[in-house]
Amino acid sequence: MRFIIQRVQKASVAVDGENIGKIGKGYMVLIGVSGEDTEEVADKMVRKMINLRIFQDENDKTNLSLADVGGELLLISQFTLYADCRKGNRPSFIKAGSPDMANNLYEYIIEECKKSVSIVERGEFGADMKVSLINDGPFTVVLDSAEL
User: Fold this and answer.
1) Is 80 noted as a catalytic residue in this protein?
2) Model pTM?
């Protein structure tokens, strides 16, 4: 499982020209699910993401978590995080989870995040989405379950 976490001042996602999710200060997270991922892997990833201390404290040190700043989440599914570009010029997505399995884990992640974050917005699984954000920093972190 891969999470691309961007610390944002604000972010939104639209489908067919209609905003379906919008947050203020917090994380916009792109979520990629592999064919080997499980709810246990998702639990680990969610815990790590929620507890990351990447917001600045009063001394300008990245020492505060999402909860410390009352941050919000915008969670977007993105199977292309498992693109394999080693051969040729057209990426292969064979390592990405099947749509049903990936959608189930995406929904699971959303529900788990709602247990500890008051505002959790989302994209639409499988849709052509337009994501807008103001990256704060910029500050972007990659979490990969293979490295946790």
Assistant:
1) yes
2) 0.97
